Amino acid sequence: MTRRHLLGAAASGALAGLVLARDTPLLADAADVAGGAGGAGGVPADPRAGAQPATAAWLDGMITGDDLTQARATLAPMQPKVLELDVLWQWRRELAQQLRNGARAVAITRWDKAILLSGLARESALPVKQQRISRSLFRTEIG
Questions:
Q1: CA–CA separation, 60 vs 52, rounded Å?
Q2: What is the pLDDT of residue 12?
Q3: How many Å apart are CA 100 and CA 106, to the nearest integer?
Q4: How far apart are CA 136 and CA 109, in angstroms?
Q5: How many Cβ atoms sit within 10 Å of the Cβ of residue 98?
Q6: What is the three-class DSSP state of 58?
Q7: What value, to the nearest 5°, has the Cα angle with vertex 20 and ends 100 and 51?
Q8: What is the mean pLDDT of residues 104-110?
Q9: Mind listing the pLDDT tens digit for each residue in 87-99?
């Protein structure tokens, strides 16, 4: 691991704290604004109750500046989970399991992670829609 990787990881960790803490509604408030559909934190709603599945929001931890502002506005009022530098490992650990349990996901990422997420979702036979929302940002809907 190089010094550049360590600095990048530290910066993304600090950015994650800012993204999650600054001007973000509480989980209960976000559920009320979204109409109360689904559970909090990417936990799917009970399909037997007739509710729609929860939507998890994911945000690329490497986004900064105006792109970060636009990404947060796009995901509002959801509270996004920050994607780690190693998206593949995070996918295998937790993200794929959430989607297999019936959750849907919306991710705002740079082009490189958008391609990776799309490929991982297709590998898992999950439907994927991608949309370019700015010069360097993509919105990826999975599930």
A1: 25
A2: 53
A3: 15
A4: 8
A5: 22
A6: strand
A7: 40
A8: 91
A9: 899 998 888 888 8
